């Protein structure tokens, strides 16, 4: 079956037990065995690495054998990543938009958190000069995708997209937001509400927050109704509800966790929620709570609430 022409059922697909916060110690391919996967493995070269902060590395992968055809993926999908010498693949989400694979210099980007107990992640955290230039093999998979198959199938007009990211859970949402802006889906009658919760890196260290600058840039292309809200957790600075200017952009920064009212407000007026989609990706506890809240919110079609959990 060709993954890219398959209509993905618009259902919630939790990656781990919905109530358990404990880690399930199984490799990625087994954990995601029920997810759709492309048949083909593609060779890529690890071309570039950039360290965003103490915990996150960004990688640029370029196709190694273009004559065999470029891989295809949908925004939000992940890769089985086979690294040299490690028998089982790791699972990491593509953070770049699909259209970049058709550009003059095609590449895909991954953002990988330091995880010494995960063999493929540990390999990717080796000293850069020992891994750059290596050939990896990757396979595309996953059903947490943009655009929403639901709206496409019913030819309905989407009016609002709500994205909720917890920490490195911003990865699939980064690809989705980028593709949405490239496709110019963001017009005056369409709005994006983006709630991003992450650990406070401390004052004047906002540039160390994964993808914050990139998200701010993309918001310039969105209409006035669209809004980016940053929630900084475990903050030493107890200033609450500050309206801060970062890199010349207006962005609401609040030093607390995302709360129920934040999500309900982002979902918009009850009579417009039928035309809203909601994408949530974060740690399991947060994801479960917000999925339940969004699905039960008045006016929301529960089939339009999607999530992905990693740990
Ligand atoms: C759909 C999906 C997308 C993800 N996207 C990203 C991403 O973009 N960036 C990111 O940083 N992380 C991502 N992750 C998480 C990543 O795959 C690992 O789960 C993470 O690195 C944590 O690893 P861990 O060993 O701490 O825990 P787990 O992955 O839960 O592994 C627990 C234990 O299982 C064993 N194990 C796991 N994988 C392997 C393996 N391949 N070979 C041998 N033994 C293994 C090890 O003993 C390990 O200690 C994603 C996960 C999923 C399911």
TrEMBL record:
Keywords: NAD, Oxidoreductase. GO terms for cellular component: mitochondrion. InterPro entries: FAD-bd_FR_type (IPR017927), FNR_nucleotide-bd (IPR039261), Oxidoreductase_NAD-binding (IPR052128), OxRdtase_FAD/NAD-bd (IPR001433), Riboflavin_synthase-like_b-brl (IPR017938). Pfam families: NAD_binding_1. Residues 39-154 form the FAD-binding FR-type domain. Coiled coil: none annotated. GO terms for molecular function: oxidoreductase activity. Transmembrane segments: none annotated. This is Oxidoreductase NAD-binding domain-containing protein 1.
